[in-house]
Amino acid sequence: MVLVVQKIKDNESTLRFGALQGILKESHSLFAMFHGPIRTLLDRQPSAEFARGHLHTFVTDYLSDFSVGKKLQLPTYRDSLTERGTVQMLTVSREVALEVQSLTTVLGSCLRNVICQSIVLFEDLLVSTTLPLDDTLNLYTYAILRLTPSALSSNGNSWSYLRKGGYVNADTTLSSANGAAAAERYNSRSRDTSPGGQNQMHHNFRPLQREKLSKGKDGFVAADFATTEIRGAVPLNPILWFHQAEERMYLCVYQHKNLTILLVIPASSLINGEEGIAHVKRHLLENASQNIVTVEQKLSRGWGGENAYHVGGYRYILSDPNRKVSRASP
């Protein structure tokens, strides 16, 4: 992957190569999580029209977070103090930790004979995870970008936890449409019957398209990506490809106030995907609702706000090796 960035004169926004490399790595990791390895897409259709269409729309949607009109929006030094590409943990007391453990046990039993995996977030911080490290990082990154309450309430660009104003780039919209058309041309001819093919690949699935994501009255967060002539727009539960587990998983997202639950279900365990997801959702509402309410209440009582971990009297320094300068707090 090659990233080309126009040089700018604004000293405050000097490009840092490590950050630009991070953009490429993050976009590739997220793409592979939703669409599987690029090599697999090329094996399925060697002419690469299918892979090219999905890559085009996905990367364009991803880079829209960094754009203001036709210009690249770079973070200020203040924004840079929030580390991107890392998992931010929420420290909890022993009492709350036991409640969270009880909740994850209930979430893991949403299917009788199959153990489901889960990630629990409070605000934008990780409370618990049962996934391997790499898969946790990728799914956490996606949740921060699009699924948490602050992400859903924002229609604009994001710097991890920081939300900016909304912008629409005409060039980006046009290129997205062209890429979507390429993917759609392949989809109309495809006979793929794999779980991923039946789901997001046949519906031009675009998980980073912010305006498609919404929280329903039942508390579940879904994307109206799938459209049929009979049912119209229907919620679509994405299928993820987890690198460490080497298995496709359904993603089910539930939200209660500031608590976000990402439930991951093995696709192979559901004979009928959407009906099986509906069963899992009913089980979650019937058996985990009280645990969810309890955990959210206890975390809210102990929550000190976004600056909860600031230590009084400490100063902070930010060093930029590329420019050989450093900035410190007053």
Automatic annotation (TrEMBL):
Residues 181-204 are annotated as: Disordered. GO terms for biological process: vesicle-mediated transport. Residues 193-202 have a biased composition (Polar residues). GO terms for cellular component: Mon1-Ccz1 complex. PANTHER family: VACUOLAR FUSION PROTEIN CCZ1 HOMOLOG-RELATED. This is CCZ1/INTU/HSP4 first Longin domain-containing protein.
